[in-house]
């Protein structure tokens, strides 16, 4: 029995015993190098081959090859086993518990008044109106005088407000934008069609239907040959777009210092259809806006010849429109920022 054969057998026994104990890939790699590498144990043993007899050499050669093949296969097998147990460990670690509650992302919404305003703006933009911004802090001149409400005019009492100085105040309506728009408009290039949305203020006691601040949308059309028929046609179209095609409009004579004639417009109740219910206070009608033909004095104060130019104007309350459309029964909901209220209009 050659001593090389014994050494190979010994190496085999030792290798087969230690291989199963290897627990990671780098240990396995060290193991492979220590046997099969250039300076490995098998390589060392085989260096003794040159001293063997011709009879012994093929026997030992076959034995060495057998061992090399076997240990190479076993190392490969072990490598796969280590890789798959590593993968299994990772998978176990990364398990997804689909029953865990998710992370909720709260999505904001536009305020219902903003939505209402934008919807109305959209309708008027489609009819070629421009949208103008106004000033919440206004002068007595534009808020009252230019609206044909001179000092001591009794109709001022209905629109008392917050004064900053004797001549500077929080505007009581969006109507001053009528005068400002006419002042700014170049009538040699054609007529004026505008709406002016915004916040207004009045000295008022807050309750379910009143607030010391609220929002209006003013409308004004001034051109040659504008008649009340244009006002009726325009408002008819807008109200039907907003409240439904089968709404009827009712026009009642009214009074505003800056329009003549003046009207208040009611729509047939969209809840009961006119039969009478709690929304329309059993009248079948809901008051929706004030309007009229622009008073000649208002035109003249903007430097327009009231014999040549005429116009119509209207003013509607944004809160009122939203309250009617969505059945909101307390105006204070608009201003309190309570998410339970706001989220209903997402
Ligand atoms: N400014 C009036 C108000 O606030 C509404 C209105 C506007 C009436 C334009 C007629 C024309 O009550």
Quickly list its features.
39% helix; 7-stranded mixed beta sheet; 2 domains; two-stranded antiparallel sheet; BirA Bifunctional Protein, domain 2; binds phenylalanine; 346 residues; alpha+beta
Topology of helices and strands:
Blueprint: H1 3-18, H2 25-36, H3 41-46, H4 56-93, H5 112-125, E1 130-131, E2 137-139, H6 140-143, E3 168-170, H7 176-184, E4 192-201, E5 213-224, H8 228-243, E6 249-256, E7 259-268, E8 285-294, H9 296-301, E9 309-317, H10 318-326, H11 339-342
Parallel strand pairs: 1-4
Antiparallel strand pairs: 2-3, 4-5, 5-9, 6-7, 7-8, 8-9
The protein binds phenylalanine.
Q: End-to-end distance, in Å?
A: 93 Å
The low-pLDDT segments are none
Q: Helicity level, as a percent range? A: 25-40%
Note the run of SSEs as H and E.
HHHHHEEHEHEEHEEEHEHH
Q: Which molecules other than protein and nucleic acid are bound? A: phenylalanine
The fraction of residues in strands falls at: 15-25%
The total of helices stands at 11
Corresponding CATH superfamily of the largest domain: Bira Bifunctional Protein, Domain 2
Radius of gyration over all CA atoms, rounded? 45 Å
Question: Mean of the pLDDT scores?
Answer: 92
Query: What's the number of extended β-strand segments?
Result: 9
Largest sheet: 7 strands, mixed
Number of domains: 2
Indicate the structural class: alpha+beta
Q: And the CATH topology of the largest domain?
A: BirA Bifunctional Protein, domain 2
Strands of the biggest beta sheet: in what spatial order?
A: 1-4-5-9-8-7-6
């Amino acid at each position: 029995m050659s001593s090389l054969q014994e050494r190979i057998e010994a190496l085999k026994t030792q290798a087969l015993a230690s291989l199963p104990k290897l627990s990671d890939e780098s240990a396995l790699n060290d193991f492979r190098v220590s046997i099969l590498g250039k300076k490995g144990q098998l390589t060392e043993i085989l260096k003794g081959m040159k001293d063997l007899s011709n009879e012994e050499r093929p026997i030992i050669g076959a034995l060495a090859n057998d061992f090399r093949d076997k240990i190479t296969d076993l190392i490969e097998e072990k490598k796969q086993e280590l890789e798959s147990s590593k993968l299994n460990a990772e998978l176990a670690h990364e398990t997804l518990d689909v029953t865990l509650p998710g992370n909720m992302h709260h999505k904001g919404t536009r305020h219902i008044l903003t939505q209402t305003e934008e919807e109305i703006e959209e309708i008027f933009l489609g009819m070629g109106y421009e949208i103008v911004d106004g000033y919440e802090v206004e002068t007595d001149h534009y808020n009252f005088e230019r609206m044909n409400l001179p000092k001591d005019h009794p109709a001022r009492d209905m629109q008392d407000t917050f004064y900053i100085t004797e001549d500077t105040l929080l505007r009581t309506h969006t109507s001053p934008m009528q005068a400002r728009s006419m002042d700014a408009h170049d009538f040699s290039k054609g007529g004026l069609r505008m709406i002016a949305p915004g916040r207004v203020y009045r000295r008022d006691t807050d309750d379910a239907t009143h607030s010391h601040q609220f929002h209006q949308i003013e409308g004004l059309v001034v051109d040659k040959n504008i008649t009340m028929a244009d006002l009726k046609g325009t408002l008819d179209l807008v109200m039907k777009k907003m409240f439904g095609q089968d709404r009827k409009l009712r026009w009642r004579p009214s009074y505003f210092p800056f329009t003549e004639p003046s009207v208040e417009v009611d729509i047939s109740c969209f809840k009961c259809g006119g039969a009478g219910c709690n929304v329309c206070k059993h009248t079948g009608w809901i008051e929706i806006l004030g309007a009229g033909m622009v008073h000649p004095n208002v035109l003249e104060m903007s430097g327009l010849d009231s014999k040549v130019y005429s116009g119509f104007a209207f003013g509607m309350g944004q809160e009122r429109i939203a309250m009617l459309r969505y059945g909101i029964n307390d105006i204070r909901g608009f201003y309190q920022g309570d998410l339970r209220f706001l989220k209903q209009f997402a």
